[in-house]
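stage 2 :: seqdesign
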């Protein structure tokens, strides 16, 4: 089993009413939620740890997870509001305004964390859940508790406007990236974490040397690069008629994890010794499923049957 740890929220997507007025339509979402949904649809055994409200939006999130085959038994339910993300789309690219004060997702504490099953082979962390306290430190606690025994993947997925304490966030990222076996990071996120004139590939190479992790650098339409102890490789993005990019990176992460799991590579030893064939296949599968997501509106990852 893979367990995704982080936010589940409601994306308020711009739309038009029948008479042409501006409006928002609620859609289930969140970076970690999207990855869990994508893994479930790809047929991977997956669960989720997240603070979920008991309000109608929280019920909708729980039902959506179950409908895509995600185990919901470790959700942390609370009588607090659901996080809302108001989305702005410009030429298909999304930016977000988050409303998260006192939310069910944000207010989880270490004592709320569930025990993990022995069948859990990997944990995935990322998104805005790593940016705001107390929940961010709760996820950091879980990462530190489990990283010696299970594969950890981290995608910072940084939203600079959402970070209130930059020093604390950078400290948390240093700790979690140092505990990770897989780091997936976009070129924009890497430039934010490591300001300077070096190119993204040089920065990713340095991050790999510093952490010892498999580092996957994504460049949007320019594809992805991987840096690991055995070398480097590049995989192009798949061609797609883009509608928007909502959930593209999250789906890519799911594809990579699903393929690594299917190939029996989700253990610390197997990742450390991964060969180019398996790594290229995992990145290419991530690009394949992400291309489906960008070809339709919102975060709507493909089912395995759509890929056959």
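stage 2 :: out
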């Amino acid at each position: 089993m893979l367990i995704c740890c982080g936010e589940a929220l409601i994306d308020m997507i711009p739309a038009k009413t029948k008479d042409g007025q501006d409006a928002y339509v609620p859609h289930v979402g969140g970076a970690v939620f999207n990855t869990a949904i994508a893994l479930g649809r790809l047929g991977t055994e997956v669960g989720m740890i997240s603070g979920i409200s008991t309000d109608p939006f929280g019920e909708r999130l729980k039902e959506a997870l179950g409908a895509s085959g995600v185990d919901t038994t470790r959700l942390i339910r609370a009588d607090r509001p659901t996080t809302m993300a108001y989305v702005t789309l410009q030429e298909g690219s999304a930016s977000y305004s988050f409303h998260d004060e006192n939310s069910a997702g944000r207010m989880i504490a270490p004592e709320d964390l569930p025990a993990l099953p022995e069948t859990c082979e990997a944990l995935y962390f990322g998104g805005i859940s790593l940016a705001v306290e107390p929940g961010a430190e709760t996820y950091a606690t879980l990462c530190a508790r489990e990283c010696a025994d299970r594969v950890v993947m981290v995608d910072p997925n940084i939203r600079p406007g959402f970070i209130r304490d930059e020093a604390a966030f950078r400290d948390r990222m240093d700790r979690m990236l140092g505990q990770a076996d897989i780091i997936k990071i976009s070129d924009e996120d890497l430039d934010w974490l490591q300001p300077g004139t070096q190119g993204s590939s040089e920065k990713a190479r340095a991050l790999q040397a510093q952490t010892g992790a498999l580092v996957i650098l994504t460049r949007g339409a320019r594809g992805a690069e991987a840096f690991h102890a055995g070398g480097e490789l590049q995989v192009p993005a798949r061609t797609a008629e883009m509608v928007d990019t909502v959930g593209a990176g999250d789906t890519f992460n799911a594809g990579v994890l699903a393929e690594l799991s299917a190939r029996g590579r989700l253990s610390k030893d197997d990742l450390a010794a991964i060969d180019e064939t398996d790594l290229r296949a995992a990145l290419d599968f991530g690009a394949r499923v992400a291309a489906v997501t960008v070809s339709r509106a919102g975060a709507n990852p493909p089912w395995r049957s759509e890929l056959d």
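stage 3 :: structure notes
- The two ends are 23 Å apart (CA to CA).
- The chain has ten helices and 15 strands.
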